[in-house]
């Protein structure tokens, strides 16, 4: 009614800041106290395997990687449900049989896209993708739902790992320069993940400590950092951010080609899909 008071519009800057801060604290607490299951680990392993290899994922290898990844995420601060054995992997595959399946000794994604389902082309912002593309994309997107809870513990360490992987010939970087690059990528990925700018220094320092624990980075001097020798985890960190960064790169390259011409959202989306 006309007599209602809009308290939000009248809130002081301090109150608005506190509301935003409280919201991030709630989300952060929820993410930190979520328990990661065997299928979260398997989804992460399978997603990484598909990004890194064309070979099928063997059950035995998946079980070993699930156990390894469980210990890594525990170091990174996650609560991981115990019992990530080969039997646990078999059981979780059975529970999630609508998404993954065992074919002999290999783990495969189940095709969940029906070619008989017709999409109104007028509702599509970009290209109408072929059924073969949708057959791969839809299961991967559904798998990502189970990867996402793990990303809370991985995003900051992964950003630093990506930067360290692209140091060039020197192979060294100061903490100050690393933080500047971290700030840039973090601001970019803030559109993809819940990242609170007020905590960027704390989360940067925390990520550095954890990366040292898992041998991804080493201190060559008091101020200089270099890559450690945990190659397997380095590659996984990079693979997990690759879809996001490659998307930004593709669109950025397209915009550079088109400048200074204005581009519609539909054209931009089609270029990103091409």
TrEMBL record:
Q: Which residues form the GPAT/DHAPAT C-terminal domain?
A: 19-271
Record Pfam families: GPAT_C
Offer an example of a GO molecular function term for this protein: glycerol-3-phosphate O-acyltransferase activity
Q: What is one term from the GO cellular component aspect held by the record?
A: peroxisomal membrane
Q: What top-level branch of life does the organism fall under? A: Eukaryota
Q: Name one GO biological process term.
A: ether lipid biosynthetic process
Query: PANTHER family attached here?
Result: DIHYDROXYACETONE PHOSPHATE ACYLTRANSFERASE (PTHR12563:SF17), GLYCEROL-3-PHOSPHATE ACYLTRANSFERASE (PTHR12563)
Question: What is the name attached to this protein's record?
Answer: GPAT/DHAPAT C-terminal domain-containing protein
């Amino acid at each position: 009614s006309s007599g209602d008071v809009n308290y939000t519009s009248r809130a002081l800057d301090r109150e608005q800041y506190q509301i935003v801060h409280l919201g991030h604290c709630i989300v952060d607490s929820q993410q930190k106290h979520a328990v990661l299951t065997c299928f979260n680990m398997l989804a992460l392993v399978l997603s990484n395997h598909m990004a890194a290899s064309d070979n099928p994922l063997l059950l035995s290898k998946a079980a070993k990687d699930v156990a390894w990844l469980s210990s890594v995420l525990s170091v990174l601060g996650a609560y991981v449900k115990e019992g990530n054995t080969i039997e646990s992997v078999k059981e979780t595959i059975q529970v999630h049989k609508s998404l993954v399946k065992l074919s002999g000794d290999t783990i495969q994604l189940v095709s969940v896209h029906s070619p008989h389902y017709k999409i109104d082309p007028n509702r599509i912002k970009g290209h109408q993708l072929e059924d073969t593309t949708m057959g791969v994309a839809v299961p991967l997107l559904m798998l990502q739902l189970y990867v996402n809870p793990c990303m809370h513990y991985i995003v900051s360490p992964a950003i630093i790992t990506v930067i360290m992987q692209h140091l060039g010939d020197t192979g060294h970087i100061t903490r100050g320069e690393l933080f500047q690059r971290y700030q840039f990528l973090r601001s970019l990925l803030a559109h993809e993940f819940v990242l609170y700018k007020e905590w960027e220094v704390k989360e940067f320092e925390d990520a550095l400590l954890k990366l040292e624990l898992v041998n991804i980075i080493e201190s060559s001097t008091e101020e200089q950092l270099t890559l450690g020798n945990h190659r397997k985890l380095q590659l996984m960190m990079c693979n997990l951010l690759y879809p996001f960064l490659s998307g930004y790169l593709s669109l950025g390259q397209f915009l550079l080609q088109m400048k200074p011409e204005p581009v519609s959202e539909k054209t931009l989306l089609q270029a990103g899909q091409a």
